[in-house]
Amino acid sequence: MWHEDAPNEVIFAPFVSINELPNTQGGTYLGWNNGSRHYVPYYLPSQWVIDMFDDNDFRKDAYFLTSNRVLLSGSYHTLTMVNKYPGNPSLRAANAATNYAHSPKIFRIAETILIAAEASYHANNPDAARNHLNKLREARGLPALANTVTGNSLLNEIKNERFRELAFEGYRFDDLKRWGEGFTRRDPQNVNVIQRGNDFDTKTVSANHSKFTWGIPDRDVTANPNIVQNKGW
Fold it and tell me: Is the residue at 144 inside a domain?
């Protein structure tokens, strides 16, 4: 589904072809330099993100790539990168370097299962929530949750599964906002290859931070003087 855009679990994805390519992740996650044969990613998953995936989880090998050819801070390192968007080979010329192009997966079955699980939990139907969640877990190589998993433990399992399944697809910001949760950055893979400081490796954002609400585009405020810009923007 991710490397070759197989449609088995995809409900809706817009048409793309080698002549009509979508926007891509570019070098954000991998940054492969075909000439010098190394990676220069702009983003690395923190260690806790990688550790969220059990070794038996099919997604772990699909989402991540570990290489000793990662060039950062002037030297090579062995690091794990996000490999969810390596580029569909059918969307580039034969033997050409990847262009990271994929058919965007707008809506897929796994998300509907996660929505059903979370909705069932909030409807005070933990058995249904657990059953929905177990369908996805078992499809991903994980054991089913026991019937004893209830209450906050069940909700946390739903949140964690949503994190794993939808990782790197742009859902996390809205999920944290919806759950009323902030975040604190946690342990990196290698502290020597990242920027350090309060706005980087130790950054904390509270649930009520103004940036958890999107700013209204300037053009809209200019076009309609009755619009009041959101606080903090």
Answer: yes
pLDDT in tens, 174-218: 999 999 999 999 999 999 999 898 889 999 999 999 999 999 999
- The C-alpha angle 144, 149, 153, rounded to 5 degrees, equals 115
Distance in Å from the first CA to the final CA of the chain: 38
Q: Where are the beta strands (DSSP E) in the chain?
A: 10-12, 32-33, 38-39, 64-72, 75-82, 107-108, 183-184, 204-205
Q: Check whether residue 79 and residue 115 sit in a common domain.
A: no
Rounded to whole angstroms, how far apart are CA atoms 81 and 75?
16
Token couple for 2:
């991710």
Alpha helices in 27-69 (DSSP H): 47-51, 58-63
Total domains present in the chain: 2
HSE of 70, CA atoms in CB hemisphere, 13 A = 22
Whole-number mean pLDDT of the chain?
A: 94
Do 65 and 83 contact (CB within 8 A), yes or no?
Answer: yes
Domain that holds residue 53: 25-84
pTM of this structure: 0.92
H-helix or E-strand spanning residue 172: helix 172-179
